[in-house]
Structure formats: structure tokens, C-alpha cells
Amino acid sequence: MLALASSPSSPVIRLGIWTRLGIRASSGLTVRRRPPQSDEVGVDGGRLAFPEIGAAKRVVLVRHGQSTWNEEGRIQGSSDHSVLTTKGEAQAETSRQMLLCDTLIPLIRSKRTAEIIWDARMEEMIPESDLREIDLYSFQGLLKHEGKARYGDAFQQWQIDAPNFNIDGHYPVRELWARAKSCWDKILAHDGKSVLVVAHNAVNQALVATAMGLGTEYFRILLQSNCGVSVLDFTPTPDGGSPKICLNRLNQTPNSPIAAGASAGRKARNRIILVCHGTTQSNDEVSFSSAIDKPMNMLGIIQSQKTAELLLDLKVNPIICTPSIASIDTSMTISKVQEAADCLGADCIPRYVEVKKMEAFAFDTVKEIWDEGGRAWDTLLQELADESEPGKNVVVVGHPAIHIALIVRCLNLTKKWLGSFHLDTGGISVIDFPDGPDGRGVIRCVNYTAHLGRWSIPITRSTLDDEEF
């Protein structure tokens, strides 16, 4: 394993969701990027021109643990005057345990986190100055209310239009995106099959976004919590050139993904929780339609129970599910546990949960998945817009393919991005709406599986050999 970290301040490779769903990545599903925005660093139709790689590579991104300036609410930027709090060190220790059995190579507030995670490994950690946090110049070190008082309009622009925010003659977010691109060149140049990168909130956002071909308008949309883990898989293409890139998970945190907290600095007014139904009795699907109506096997039943237990800490209503046996059974398990919240000590009164089934549909092709996902996304936004119950937490249970389509719709991308995300059965993804259903969705996490306990998906599990697994 190679470990990279910002300077002081085993390969698990996914060819794409289509492997598990019966469509191999080699079947011709090509992921192209939309044309880049004017401030994007991408070329070749928006896709970054990454260096050619000889073998599949997994990159694990970890944000540092809570720092003293996080706790105080100061604007940190790239300054190096804060240290980990006791809570931050505990978060780093939890991340170390998540990565305990992983074979990684190291690149390195983040230095101390990297030291805790790296623990007794013999390989040297590699400091990398370009992994420093976003440069915020005169803002750095100020408490947020001080920034607002001193800089007024500039501070407001930083809050609501960060990509165009200018201070001291600099555009910090644009500079960060360009720096993230240069970081990828260095990361992928290393020989290790797995690379651990320990860095900071904004730079990790930029690393994920630039790898996916997303511009600065996605700043604060791909959440990075303290000690949150994100995973990107790079797979060489047969004809050479830039590798295929897939986001295997985003922001798997030491804490519960549904815990109360801010999204992009604001409290979430509404939330959508995407729950992939449990594993079904057949792992030999040759098409989507043949997989849609299989009951869950014992592992799938356990996964649904673990998910219901996790969601017990949140009052959810309604639960919306696709019309498959596995989705309906997973939904009913969640509903029954919710309604027993008083007996289970999670609430003082029983909870009533409405379970709604989507209309029957089949999805044999990528186009059908995309179209069904679009209709489902519109339905979910209408559900959130119902003001009879403010602050809704809507749970959606379905096949991983539909959930990927929903995530892509949320990000306002096209169907050509469907192969850029991976979800596991039993995994959870969370979308927050801090500005309500009419605002942009913030992706709190993608493919969280830590709640599955001993059945969770290891961060560096190889997905090239799913059939053997």
C-alpha cells in the first residue's frame, strides 16, 4: 500500500455496477463525459486526461479527524495551526480499524490522522504539498462570524457561489480544482495497486470531482466528513490512454450516515435514503429483468435487518419501494422495526410508516434504467415537496441500478455517467436537501456498508472476481 498525505498541516477494483447486475464492463458500456464548463480542468469531452496505467488501481481517500479549528468553527484553509482533538484522534482510530486488514501503499491536522491509520506498517508515508487544504488567503484563521463582519459581500459569495468567489486576487475553488488534477498525475504514477491518501475536506472533494469529470460547480455537493472514506477505482482500457474510473463509495464515516449534522454547512431540511435491497437467491443474472423478482437469500435477509436497525435512529416516512419481492420484503422489515420503535427504546411512542410501491416496470437496457430512474426521481421530489409533513426522511428501497440512476439524476448528469458509480446489495446512500426539495441535493454518502457488521464490504475488497466471491 502507498500512503500519501498532505504535508504538515490490495487492490479492490470495480469495473462498474454492471458486473454484479449481469452486464460486464467489457460488454461495451462506455462512460463519456459531458463537455467541460469553462473553469473545468478536463479535456477530451470533459474527461480528465489521466496518465495511462498498466494495472487496475484503487485509491482510498480519507479526510483527517476533527481538528481544534473544526471544533471552534474557524475558517481553516491551508493554514497549519490546528491539531486533532481527542474526538479527532478517536475518529482516526476507527478509520484505522476499517483499514486494518487492507494492503495499501501510503501518500499526508492530516499528518497525525495518517500516522494513526498507518500505525505499525513499515512502508514510509509520502508527504505531498499539493494535498494541502484549499488556500483561502485572508480568510484563514477567522471565526465565521468574523469573516462575515470583515468581508461582508465576499463572505456571502463564499457561502452561496464559491466557484466564483474571489479574495486577494485569487479564485480559491478554481485553483483547488487545478491542483487536484496535478495530484492525480502523482498518485497514479505510483506502482501500488492500492493507494491511501489522507488529506482535507475541500481537496478530497476536488479529487473525487476531477476524477469523475465534474467541474467546480460540484464544490460542497460531494460531502467529506471528518475521517470519511471515499474510494475510486481506476481500470486500464484495452487501447491504452486514460483509465476507466468508478466511484465505489463516498464518505463512509466512523459515525452513522443518518446522524444529525450539517450538509455543506447547513442543516438538511429533507433527506432521501437510498437502500439497496438485500442479496437475492440468484447471483447468475444475465439480464436486469431476470433479477428483478427473486426473493432474498439468508444473507439478504440479514442485510435488510441490519439496515432496519440502522434506520431505527431516524424517524422515516414514507418508505417507497420498487415492486420486486426483495424490495418489498426489505421495506416491510424496515417498516416493522420503525413501528416497534417504542418497544425497542428508540422512541417514546410507536411510529406509523406508510409503505408505497412504485408502479411495475422492467429494465432490460441502460435506456430503460435511465428512463425509469427519471420518473422515480420526479416522484421523490414531489414527495419531498408535500408540506403536510415538513422535514421528511424518505426511504427508497430498490435495485442498485435504479439507485445509481437516481444519484446521477440528483447530480444533473446524463445516462453516460451510469457506469461511473458502484453500489452493493445492502448498501445505503444518503442525499440531503439543505435548501428544501427545490434546492440542489447534497450527496452525504454513497454505498455505505459499515452497518452490515461482519457482512460489510471491505474497503479494499477486489470486485474483479465477484463471481468467485
Automatic annotation (TrEMBL):
CDD domains the UniProt entry points to: HP_PGM_like
Active site, UniProt feature: 64, 133
Q: What is its EC number?
A: 3.1.3.63
* Domain of life where this protein originates: Eukaryota
EC main class here is hydrolase
Q: Where in the cell is it found?
A: Plastid, Chloroplast stroma
**Do the record's keywords include Transit peptide?**
yes
Q: Name one GO molecular function term.
A: 2-carboxy-D-arabinitol-1-phosphatase activity
Q: Name one Pfam family in it.
A: His_Phos_1
InterPro entries (UniProt xref)? His_Pase_superF_clade-1, His_PPase_superfam, PG/BPGM_mutase_AS, PGM_Phosphatase
What are its GO cellular component terms?
A: chloroplast stroma
Task: Describe the reaction catalysed, as an equation.
Answer: 2-carboxy-D-arabinitol 1-phosphate + H2O = 2-carboxy-D-arabinitol + phosphate
Name this polypeptide is given: 2-carboxy-D-arabinitol-1-phosphatase
